[in-house]
Amino acid sequence: MNILLTNDDGIDSPGLRLLADALRKNSSHRVLVLAPDTDCSGFSHSIRFLWNPIKISQRDSDAWACSGSPADCVIMALLGALPVKPDLVISGINRGANMGTDLVYSGTAAAARQAGLGGIPAIALSLAGTGEFYWDMAVSWTVDHLEELRNVWRSDTFVNVNIPNSPGGPDGMANTFPSRTSYHDKLSVFEAPDGNSWYFVEFGTVNALPAPGSDWEAVSKNLAAVSPVFVHPVNGPGEDGKQAWQ
Questions:
Q1: H helix intervals, 153-235
Q2: Domain 2-179+210-230 has CATH 3.40.1210.10
Q3: Are strands 2-6 and 197-202 parallel, antiparallel or unpaired?
């Protein structure tokens, strides 16, 4: 199987590098890395090729750095920039959670969404926590459950996975849905001597609306949260992702 690894933390991030090394130990996989050459956290689904050509530089055997966004990386790969086209796209492992409303901002999620838009099975992986990140645990868990996660994928979706950042690993895996989260940030301003105003965002707490079965609830119980996410814009709930005007 040809696996494309990308992310939004950048090609030098430990989550990407360690996962690539682990997956390459399986001789049945060819693992190709195409990831941003800088940290693109919070880039959402932005694309840079609309304004500038994309530079791709080979870093190692089957590893390339891209001047574009996470979504650009997947677009380039699906259009033929790499030696082979992927059968599976994995985005991550991200440093920190991507749960609920985070999916609107996340470059990690955007890369997986772009693959889903192209009809390619895609998984977004995040290590949900702060402080010391237990990368080896997250990589081992991912490799052990890769086929299960791939089998969750359905056409027009990507699979969003949040692994609790606990040294012993998750106590299990839960099928979840993205929670509704709210952010309580603050704005501070510095008035510069030249008359310009500089604004800084001070990150505050993040809260989730309590909901049984949500990704937030699962991670709080030390369960890996696995959420299939529809890739297309919709105008309301419904079995087919559509709701007619009333």
A1: 215-220
A2: yes
A3: unpaired
